[in-house]
Amino acid sequence: MARIHAYRILNQYFEDESFLNIALNEELKKSELKREDKDLCTTIVYGTIQNLLAIQYQLQPYIKGKRVKKKIKTLLYLSLYQLMYLDKIPEYAVINEAVNIAKKQGYQTSKFVNAVLRNFVRNERRSLEGLDELERISIETSHPLWMVKMFNKQYGLEKTKKICLEDNTPPTRSGRVNTLKASKEELLKEGCFKEGTLSKDALLYDKGNLALTSYFKEGKVTIQDESSQLVARLLDPQKTDYVLDMCSAPGSKTTHLSALMENQGKIEAYDLYEHKVKLVEYNLRRLGVKNVHIQAGDSTKLKEVYSEKTFDRILLDAPCSGFGVLKRKPEIKYHDSSIMDGLVSLQELLLENAYYLLKNDGTMVYSTCTINKKENELMIQKFIEKHPDMEVIKQRTILNYEYHTDGFFMCKMKKG
Ligand SMILES: C[S@@+](CC[C@H](N)C(=O)[O-])C[C@H]1O[C@@H](n2cnc3c(N)ncnc32)[C@H](O)[C@@H]1O
Questions:
Q1: 272 in ligand 1 pocket by Cβ < 6 Å?
Q2: Which positions does UniProt annotate for S-adenosyl-L-methionine binding (predicted)?
């Protein structure tokens, strides 16, 4: 049963290139699968996308020169994923299930699926010989070649290999203590949390889904990656500050800022999308946050809303290419590389608004969950050249393999 749901989810994903987690949540909500089947379905969906290029490389000789419908390719991808990566599932079960699904497309199709899969298990895996080093990394770790080349140019070969390998490991589920409702010491005493490795607010939970616990529901902890937890601390908001959070949803950093300000001072928070603002509102309620005013709005136009030099501190956690979070969102790997150009212009526009609204002596943090230097170091370099009264206080890039967290960039600047 898990496989038919995985098949539907992946078909929807390939059809409209939706976000995987949205397609997965919608399908699983409708289904009556048992917990273990839901887990298997999730593993198949994410595993197939995470390893898609390696799977396609192996499948290619079996479908070469044949016209195979998109849906049948999807079925072959998820079947190969199970055969290549899930040792616990017997080969006959994978093949029988795939053939049953294919029967709905007609006898010839099911015969074809049966033949491809049986040949695949019978034969040796296709070799990577003849590929150069970057092509090999691309196929082995399923990162498109342009991305591997980009990482290689920006970070060198050794780091590129480590980044790509780490992207295919399971993400750590990190929590952050919400000091508005609990202390870290008190929660550590409960015995189910561990200290983090990077953030002093982190609580690691390895007993299942943190979102289903009473700690989460009562707002004592929230889910946030450890590297992302460093951003609000870097901004270091004070209890009397007037703070602007330009890109707030789902509110992880907004609520962290509020906790650091002990619910005092004032935070103006914005996000472009109304539905995402609802998510922030839910998190503000759950976490007992009282000093945030959240609204839907375009932060590239905030110059028209506030006068110049209004805020003591500004957080610009910018929309970005997301190359730091490929462990959690593997589908980002297959986005068109041209989206980066649009993002860079948007980030520049947002930064200009931040600059205009920041008081003299004010502090701002620009952060992204990407490791693309054009959106990070080079963005800041250009910004500082344009505004010599801005001084970089601290800048940090965290690569995913260093602490087994998301990759992140953050830069703290002061207006002179
Ligand atoms: C990296 S996410 C923010 C994550 C958030 N700071 C957190 O820690 O939970 C970037 C956000 O920017 C929002 N966004 C994109 N363009 C925007 C714009 N022009 N104005 C305001 N928000 C925007 C997106 O909807 C997205 O929620």
A1: yes
A2: 247-253, 271, 298, 317
Under DSSP, is residue 140 helix (H, G, I), strand (E, B) or coil?
Answer: helix
- In the chain, helix, strand, coil percent, each to 5? 55, 15, 30
Would you state the structure tokens that stand for residue 200, as one six-digit string?
């002093």
Residue 116 carries which side chain, given as an amino acid letter? V
Cα 212–Cα 213–Cα 218 angle in degrees, nearest 5: 110
One-character DSSP codes across 81-112: HHHHH-TTS-HHHHHHHHHHHHHTT-HHHHHH
Q: How far is CA 388 from the centre of its chain?
A: 33
CB distance 325 to ligand 1 below 6 Å: no
Q: What is the pLDDT of residues 282-315, one digit of tens each?
A: 999 999 999 999 999 999 999 999 999 999 999 9
Instruction: Give first-to-last CA distance, the chain, whole Å.
Output: 62
User: 98 CA distance to ligand 1 centroid (A)?
Assistant: 40
Using CA atoms, how far apart are residues 176 and 287, in angstroms rounded to an integer?
A: 11
Considering all CA atoms of the chain, what is the largest pairwise distance in Å, rounded to the nearest integer?
73
Query: 351 CB contacts (<8 Å, ≥6 apart)?
Result: 316, 318, 366, 379, 383
Pairing of the two strands 242-245 and 311-317 = parallel
pLDDT tens digits, 92-105: 999 999 999 999 88
The rounded distance, in Å, linking the Cα atoms of 311 and 240 is: 11
Q: Which position among 164, 320, 369, 411 bears the catalytic label? A: 369
DSSP string, 353-379: HHHHHEEEEEEEEEEES---GGGTHHH
Q: 197-254: per-residue pLDDT in tens?
A: 999 999 999 888 899 999 999 999 999 999 999 999 999 999 999 999 999 999 999 9
Q: Are strands 266-271 and 242-245 parallel, antiparallel or unpaired?
A: parallel
Q: What is the DSSP letter of 392?
A: E
DSSP state of 57: H
Closest CA to 375 of 327, 414, 342, 399: 342
User: What local confidence, expressed as pLDDT, does residue 204 receive?
Assistant: 95
Q: Is 252 annotated as a binding residue?
A: yes
